[in-house]
Amino acid sequence: MTAQSVKWFWYASPQTFYPVAGVIARWCGAAAAVLCAAGLYIGLFVAPTDAQQGEAYRIIFIHVPAAWMSMFIYVVMAFWAAIGLAFNTRLSHMMASALAPTGALFTFIALWTGSFWGKPTWGTWWVWDARLKSELILLFLYLGFMALQAAIDDRRRAERAGALLAIVGVVNVPIIYYSVQWWNTLHQGASVSLTRAPSMAATMLTGMLVMALAFWMYSIAVTLLRVRCLILENR
Amino acid sequence: MGGYGLYVWGAYGVTFLLIGVEIALLVNRSRKCSETKT
Amino acid sequence: MLEAARCIVVRDLLVAWRRRSDVATALLFFVIVTSLFPLGIGAEPDLLRSIAPGVIWVAALLSCMLSLGRLFAADHADGTLEQLLLSSEPLGVIAAAKALAHWLVSGLPLVLIAPLIALQYDLAAPLYPVLALSLLLGTPVLSLIGAIGAALTLGLRGGGVLLSLLVLPLYVPVLIMGAGSVDMAAAGLAPDGQLLLLAALLIVAAAFTPWAIAAALRISVE
């Protein structure tokens, strides 16, 4: 065992990771709060009113970052699931399990804000937009992962079954997304596109990016806190 | 909010409410598992 | 390897034949569900004609899912599954063989019954081959993907409902392509795109799902 390989797996041990997680969580939590304040300021006060959608478009500053995070978290979850299956490290599985509730939350937020954006702009609470449909299926994938892990009593089997499901899911997400896009081009009359957002003024884009970063820092903080709980509960 | 107040605040409100709930649940869980196991 | 696969398919078909009522119930479910929609929505011919592909496809999905519980449960209960896991044959081949037997018993009959259901919905005659072909290409994919779910939820309490939650999101592309192909044909356009994509899904599923099913079986049994 060379010095290199020892370095890689040093933090794979729950005991050594526990304090590190706490430190990172605290810093990311603080960063999240600052970025969120900045993002909300930009989104609610600095960014100009849109000519077509009026003030209602401001929901975009939450909707789009939440949708980005929901998909990003799923990929990260599948990554840790794959690492866990490949190297048989329990901490990797715990990371995957810890990411799921936050991912599901952001997916729900994306759906809820998307719905609230659709109502004033398109007149209905539910819009069969391709992205909203994909988000709905993504929510089911998250809930399925959490339900499967909750239904199995043996922790080892639960972790590994969930990991396999997450990997199968991540392979399917692009397929689902593109098939839903295809469906939308078929049913042109019934579908409207929420992606036709107001032409991006620089401030709008900045606001969205800052909120996305805020959500990212928040996810890291919350996930690491949850991993700490999982480490303690599974000793 | 130019008449769209219900929608904008409805969206932002629920979002931050849910985030708050997640943090609260996590803090509660964190307290419980550091109390019972030492 | 092929000999082992053939053995398993024949054995599963024999078991299914001995429990004909289980098989028949799933098919009967398909017929009943498709009969419920006109009762609930109203028997207006234009409406029925437009919802027919979607209704038939959704009913096929649900019927296929209902029969997935049987795939590994019986073998798991009497210990056969553990013996299969220990065998020298690749577990992926065994898994694929079981999925094939499942499709022959639960999917293929749907392809044959669907035209009768389409008759009930007054679907235009030229659409029948498209419907049958889309089901022929799609139902094996349903069996293969469903087998992953069945393997993951082996022996769990609340297994059936949990299986649905896991597997239905993964079924969505097949549903969209399948029902979409018939809708395209109904609109007078060529359904080639969707049918080719269904065929592609089938090939990809046949290539990769046996590995996933085998992995899931090892996770659930060991």
Number of helical runs of chain A?
7
Number of strands of chain B: 0
Please summarize the sheet with the most strands of chain A. Answer: none
- Average pLDDT figure of chain A: 84
Distance between the termini of chain A: 27 Å
Topology as H/E string of chain A? Answer: HHHHHHH
Gap from first CA to last CA of chain B: 51 Å
Share in β-strands of chain B: under 5%
Number of helices of chain B: 1
Anisotropy-based shape of chain B: rod-shaped
Q: Approximately what portion of the residues of chain A adopt beta-strand conformation?
A: under 5%
The helix content of chain B is: over 70%
Radius of gyration of chain A equals 20 Å
Characteristics:
heterotrimer, B: 38 residues, mainly alpha, rod-shaped, C: 222 residues, globular
Give a structural overview.
The complex is a heterotrimer of chains A (235), B (38) and C (222). Chain A is mainly α and 235 residues long. Chain A has one domain (17-233). Helix content of chain A is 80%, strand content 0%. Chain A has seven helices and no strands. In chain A, α4 packs antiparallel against α5 (130-151). The longest helix of chain A has 33 residues, at 14-46. Chain A is globular, with a radius of gyration of 20 Å. Chain B is mainly α and 38 residues long. Chain B has one domain. Chain B is built from one helix and no strands. Chain B has one helix at 5-36. The termini of chain B are far apart. In chain B, 16% of the residues are buried. Chain C contains eight helices and no strands. Chain C has helices at residues 2-18, 20-41, 45-78, 80-86, 91-120, 127-152, 159-186, 192-221. Chain C has one domain. In chain C, α1 (2-18) crosses α5 (91-120), α3 packs antiparallel against α7 and α6 packs parallel to α8. Chain C is mostly helical. Classes of the chains: A mainly alpha (235), B mainly alpha (38), C mainly alpha (222). Chains in contact: A-B, A-C. At the A-C interface, α5 and α6 of A face α7 and α8 of C.
